[in-house]
Each structure stands twice: as C-alpha cells, then as structure tokens.
Amino acid sequence: MNSAGWVLVTGGAKRIGAFLNQEFAKSGKNIVLHYNRSETAAIALKAQLEALNINVILWQANLDEPETIAQRFQALRTQVSHIELLVNSASVFSQGTLLESSLRQIQSNLNIHLTSPWLLIQAVAKQNMPCQIINISDANITHRYTNKSAYFISKKAQETLTELAAIECAPIVRVNAIAPGFVLAAIDSKATQTTAQIDNKDINLLQRQVPLADLYSAIEFLTKNTSITGQTIQIDGGSHLQCPAYMLKN
C-alpha cells in the first residue's frame, strides 16, 4: 500500500476496528476514523494515533441509514484524496431466531452488514484508483446456527458480496474477506456466558481464543499479495469445520 494513501475501517473507534486502526497507524498509514455514536472513544483514539505522526480524520456516518452513505462519503472525499484500503468491520450482533426477529432487527443487520458495505464498495471503486477492500465476515456462518438469524443471514449475503465485488471491481480493485472465529466476547446483554466462563476447549479445534494480532497479519498478507481476490481467509482455530460448543449455549 502507498504510504500517501488513507485507510478506512468502519466501526473504527472500538474493539476490533480500533485495534486495526492502531496497527495501521503503527505502519505509517493515514487513518479515516469512522464512528457512529462513539464520538468520545473516536476523539480519544484520534489523539492516540496522531502521536504516531500520522494523519487522522474523524468521519461520522450511521451505517444503519444507508441512504445517507453517498452524501457522507462525498463529504469525506473533500478531505481525503485517495482511500487505498477499505475494511468493512462495523457490525451488530444481537439475539433472535428467524421466527422471532423483528423487522427493525432484520433491516439493521442488512443495513450494517450488506447494504452500507455495498455502497461503500461502490464509492471506493469510483475513485478510479488502485485500492483494496477487505470485508470482515464470520467463520461460524458455515454452521446452521439460528439463535442470531438476522446476523448470520446478512453475513452470508456479505460473503456473496465479496465474490461479486471481486469480479466487477477487477482489475484495479481487489476484494477479499477474513472470517474470524472467537476473538472478543459479543456485546449482548442476553448472552448466557461471558468470555471468562467459556472453557478453551469449547472455543475451537485449537482450544484457544483467536488473537487480534492474527486478524491484522491476515489483512497485511492480503494487502501485500497482489494475486489474491475474491477469497475469504478463515482465522478461527478451525471453528468453521466444527460448530464450537459455546455457540450452542448462547
């Protein structure tokens, strides 16, 4: 990646998004720090990243309102000339079976995991400059797990989005995805188990939590290998092969 370009990680003020921004900043990348409601966390992270002598621009956008994305991105482009890497990381993760999910819950999951990433891919591709797109999927969508149906169905749709975008955006833009397993405990008040309560043997075949650093190293690999597009890398300790026991308890 060109050090003069910018990296945009959606949901970049907290959790996985914040960690990725920290790693990109350490490598000298300029950061578009996206947030929705987490303004306090975004401002604090901006100060931390700027201490690494890189440029940081705050970008507020509600991905649950996809009709606003084009206008918000156009405003961003007045400040940033070239986004060289888009990481669609923002996510919601709430309980609800297929028959119980409300219309609002279904729409919110589709907006955040599919529609807004789709629109951002369109916007980045229209730069007509070399860039890369990486979607953050979920290794466990290989299983028929119904307790979070709106989440899993929207993530399955995102999987197809990755493949179709890779076809349409080539050869200037490469599009890939990473599919993490158990990295951080979900923020869900209805979850029956906390991270501390989950036994390592229930997490995945390797019986250990996936380190955040492994996600970044996979993204780094995808950005450097110029022959890969349309692929999803499972970073999950093997949980895509066998449904983890902890998932059946939540």
UniProtKB/TrEMBL annotation:
<dbReference type="InterPro" id="IPR036291">
    <property type="entry name" value="NAD(P)-bd_dom_sf"/>
</dbReference>
<protein>
    <submittedName>
        <fullName>Short-chain dehydrogenase/reductase SDR</fullName>
    </submittedName>
</protein>
<dbReference type="InterPro" id="IPR002347">
    <property type="entry name" value="SDR_fam"/>
</dbReference>
<dbReference type="Pfam" id="PF00106">
    <property type="entry name" value="adh_short"/>
</dbReference>
<comment type="similarity">
    <text>Belongs to the short-chain dehydrogenases/reductases (SDR) family.</text>
</comment>
<keyword id="KW-0560">Oxidoreductase</keyword>
<dbReference type="GO" id="GO:0016491">
    <property type="term" value="F:oxidoreductase activity"/>
</dbReference>
